[in-house]
Every structure is written in C-alpha cells, then in structure tokens.
Design a protein that fits this description.
Blueprint: E1 21-22, E2 33-34, E3 39-42, H1 50-57, E4 63-66, H2 70-76, E5 86-89, H3 95-107, H4 110-117, H5 121-136, H6 138-149, E6 155-158, H7 165-176, H8 181-189, H9 208-211, H10 222-236, H11 239-246, H12 251-261, E7 262-263
Parallel strand pairs: 3-6, 4-5, 4-6
Antiparallel strand pairs: 1-3, 2-7
Helix pairs in contact: 2-3, 5-10, 6-12, 7-8, 10-11
Length: about 260
C-alpha cells in the first residue's frame, strides 16, 4: 500500500448527505473496471434535502443498504424515503455499542473523554471495531454480496458517516470484484476529506483539546483499513478463502457479481 493510484472523483456536493460518491471507474479483475452508476456510497440520508432526494432518485437505485443500528437511527433519524427504492436496514454493529458511542460523543465531559480516548485509546477503539466487523459480520457481508450478484443494483451503501461500516462493506465488495487493495485504500481515504467528515454536534461545547480526542473516531485512516485486511489474512489466508469460507460466497457467485458490476 505504498502507492496511491488514481481513483474516480465523481463527487457531487449534496446539501444534506455527506461523503457521497460513485465507485465507478476503479480498476478491477482482468483489466476491467467497476461500472459507473451501479455502486454508490455515502453517509446517512436522514437529512437529505428535497434537491438531494431528487438527485438520488435520478440514479435509478434499486436498493439502499443502511448499516446503522437502532441507536444511530434514533440520533440521526430514518433515511428520507426514495420512491421505488428498496431500503434494507442491515446493522453492522450492536445497538448497545451505538448507545454508548453517541452518549460519549454528545454528552461526555472533557474528563470522561480523556479517560476513554487519550493516549491512543481512540485509534485502538477503531482498529478493534474494524477487526470485529470483519470477524463477526460475515453473514451480513455475505448477504450484501449475494443481493448484488442477484441483481439488486444500482445500490447505495451507507452507515452514519459512510466510512467505517459502509467503508468495510464497500471494501469487501471491491475485493470480491478483484479491485487491488491499494485502490480500495485510496477510495477509503477519500472519506477523510474535511467536507466529507461527519459533523459532531454537541449541546455543551468542549475545550479544543478535549474535542480533538474525538478526531480519531471520525477519521478514515489507513491503519484502520489495514487492520481489516490483516484480519482477513490472519483468519482465512486469502481473500478468496474469506469470501468462500467466511462469507459463503462461492467462485461462481463471484463471477456473477463481476458480470453485474464490472465493465471492460
């Protein structure tokens, strides 16, 4: 992962939806590329404006995969409905974890945040989360891949910020399409741009040094995704075994997925 390949920059700025982009154009298996207009990612759609919804409606979406848990939805709201689009809520984390996370972010005092997040603990929390999602959410990832292979496209994947749970679902999908890891990483790191970051809103302000403790939680860092890749390698040895043995997604399924989502 030393080189950073060029990645597509199709990135319309939506007023109420953060971190939206089309994955089309990424290099994939056999010299092919991800087909434009079939796979999108973003943050949540709860605050989509009327114009945002009209734009999203123009994409011809078949399915929106919402990886948020009930705590996320309670804090942010349900997605704005898109007529004719199937909405699938498939939590990639537990509600109890979500309740604790948002309570810490929105209500934690400077002292509490220091105890929980200082001295590298925030980043360690993130890498542990990535390892857990890869290890324990195999059924969910396998279900997403099968839905895409079965034709539930065009599809949009999102969570709250669109970088962690959606980021891993996108990464797994791209790996199944034969996208090289450095290109997966390059797309993932686009989520770290300031205009794509999840906005932290608090009723009570924090001093700057305390607020900075939250930064690793809302960042997209190469070390986080590297932990996911390492978890695949340590647990299954290869991406192919992770897909077939871990997710129950066979080589035949993989070819069907590639026919759906790739272009010459």
């Amino acid at each position: 992962m030393t080189q950073t390949p060029q990645v597509p920059t199709t990135d319309p700025l939506l007023a109420g939806v953060r971190n939206f982009r089309d994955l089309g154009g990424l290099p994939a298996a056999d010299g092919r590329r991800v087909r434009p207009g079939v796979l999108f990612r973003s943050g949540h759609l709860a605050r989509a404006t009327e114009a945002d919804a009209a734009f999203l409606g123009s994409l011809g979406l078949h399915t929106v995969f919402d990886f948020r848990n009930a705590a996320d939805i309670a804090h942010q709201g349900a997605d704005v409905p898109l007529p004719g689009v199937r909405h699938v809520n498939l939590p990639m984390s537990d509600q109890t974890d979500g309740d604790e996370f948002w309570r810490m972010v929105h209500q934690g005092s400077a002292e509490q945040l220091h105890a929980l997040l200082s001295d590298g603990r925030a980043a360690a929390r993130m890498t542990a989360s990535y390892r857990s999602i890869i290890t324990h959410r195999t059924a969910e990832h396998g279900g997403v891949l099968r839905a895409l292979a079965d034709g539930d496209v065009p599809a949009l994947m999102h969570c709250a910020a669109g970088k962690d749970r959606a980021g891993l679902a996108v990464a797994v999908t791209l790996l199944a399409l034969g996208v090289p890891r450095d290109a997966v990483e390059a797309d993932y790191l686009l989520s770290d741009a300031p205009h794509r970051r999840f906005p932290v809103r608090r009723a009570t302000p924090l001093p700057p040094e305390a607020l900075e403790l939250l930064t690793p939680l809302f960042a997209a860092r190469a070390e986080y995704l590297a932990e996911a890749f390492a978890t695949i390698d340590e647990g299954w040895g290869t991406v192919e075994r992770y897909l077939s043995e871990g997710l129950g997604f066979s080589p035949t399924d993989r070819e069907r997925l590639r026919e759906r989502l790739l272009t010459d």
